[in-house]
Amino acid sequence: MNTTALLIGLGPLLGWGLYPTIASKIGGRPVNQILGSTVGTLIFALIYAWSQGIAFPSGMNLWFSILSGIGWASAQIVTFKVFTMVGSSRAMPITTAFQLLGASLWGVFALGDWPGSMDKVLGGLALVGIIIGAYLTVWSEHKDAGNSRTLRQAVIWLAVGEIGYWAYSAAPQATSIGGEEAFVPQAIGMVIVSVVYALFLASRGEKLALVEGVSYTHIISGFFFAFAALTYLISAQPDMNGLATGFILSQTSVVLATLTGIWFLGQKKTTKEMWVTIGGLVLIIAAAAVTVMI
Length: 294
Prior knowledge:
Layout: H1 3-9, H2 11-26, H3 30-52, H4 59-86, H5 88-111, H6 117-137, H7 145-170, H8 179-203, H9 213-217, H10 219-235, H11 242-251, H12 253-264, H13 271-293
Helix pairs in contact: 1-10, 2-10, 2-12, 3-4, 3-8, 3-10, 4-5, 4-7, 4-8, 5-6, 5-7, 5-12, 5-13, 6-13, 10-11, 11-13
GO molecular function, one term: carbohydrate transmembrane transporter activity
InterPro entries: EmrE-like, Sugar_transport
Transmembrane segments: 6-22, 34-50, 62-84, 91-109, 121-139, 151-171, 183-202, 214-234, 246-265, 274-293
């Protein structure tokens, strides 16, 4: 792996690692966060496509790419909601674990990954490791019935949200479209969801997010997401890091997202909880590496 490929492969570490913390720091309601994030992503995608001369797709390539963006934005709305329940430092390891589980199971049942018996055994153990790692990141030294109930609700929400993240990853695979070509229509799908969501909430008596300044401040967080998404698409290309290595490198973002949430958002942990959390993060990354190397 050359230095350029490594640096590009670590782009998601910065982009996706800082994105949830920046979004939480800016504040506002989940609808403000998703609206600004998706608009920022679309601006970034349009500038990149124009600068690189990337053609706009048509036909099924276009519609499946838009569907991919709709899936991501729908899932991210759920994730932002969970941030308000348990904080980003707890939500990110859980949602990362669900995404890893979803991607692995999709690969097994739809793409024929892990064909041998030993592959399935190793893959199954890795999935168990991901689940254990996620549990360790939310382990609490001092049990509280109210907090435990909220955490269970958060896990259920994130499990439901995984459907959208799965669509984000799987929809483009139903066509022959390249990742960079799908970038702009994905962003269009994201914006469609955020605008519809804002209008829906307004119809139920909430303030229209489209006229709130904080929504547009979140364009900044959208740039971080878009940077991560683009560098991952480039990193996953065969002449760079390839899909497997690119995927592993992108998952390192959960470490930065969790730790910055603790350090900068006041999501405190005791010393023992901190060490257990770090152990869980290491286990998640190690298990992710196993699933893509089988």
